[in-house]
Amino acid sequence: MNTLIVACASCGKKNRIPASKQFLHPKCGHCHVPLNMTGKGVPVELGDYDFHDFVKQAPLPVMVDFFSPTCGPCRTMLPIVDAMASEHTQRFIIAKVDTSKNQQIAAFFNIRGVPTFMFFKNGSLVDQIAGAVGQYVLEQKLQNL
Ligand SMILES: [Zn+2]
Q1: Which residues are catalytic?
Q2: How many whole angstroms separate alpha carbon 107 and alpha carbon 91?
Q3: Would you state the pLDDT for residue 92?
Q4: Is the pLDDT of residue 38 over 90?
Q5: Same domain, yes or no, for 66 and 97?
Q6: How many domains does the chain contain in total?
Q7: Distance from the CA of 130 to the center of ligand 1, in angstroms?
Q8: How far apart are CA 30 and CA 137, in angstroms?
Q9: How far is the CA of 90 from the centre of ligand 1 (A)?
Q10: Is-contact 15 28, C-beta < 8 A?
């Protein structure tokens, strides 16, 4: 599981936060002041072993980017996905799965091409779209959740 580092606005200490917990209103481990996560979010990196548990327990709607590092359109989309993750820490969870390393989960969802974006609400797959698309297309699908 990936982590992010957020400096506390109150005491200045750097906090290491698991990406899977960035949505749970983390507090500074030193002075216990809530950390301001706005603009700090990162995509949650999920894989074969943690995907189902994470999506099932997610407190917010989840968008998952199924990508491969060797795919050109996927690389085009990664900065967009990163930007969405940094903006949406309070309302949506943005996650990504490297399908070259996590073939079980890709097979489970019958993913034939990357990038494929899937949208989950209350643990259920409710929408999906394949191929490189504009950020507004993904934002619209999130708003519809
Ligand atoms: Zn602090």
Answers
A1: 71, 74
A2: 29
A3: 93
A4: no
A5: yes
A6: 2
A7: 42
A8: 40
A9: 20
A10: yes
How many angstroms does the Cα of residue 140 sit away from the middle of ligand 1? 36
Q: Is 32 left (phi over 0), alpha (psi -120 to 50) or beta?
A: left
pLDDT in tens, 2-17: 999 999 999 999 999 9
CA of 14 to the centre of ligand 1 (A): 8
Is the same domain home to 28 and 69?
A: no
What CATH number should be reported for the domain holding residue 20? 2.30.30.380
Q: Are 11 and 27 in a shared domain?
A: yes
Show the domain range for 88.
Answer: 44-144
pTM above 0.90, yes or no: yes
Using a CB cutoff of 8 Å and minimum separation of 24, what contacts does 129-133 make?
Answer: 131/73, 132/73, 132/74, 132/76, 132/77, 133/77
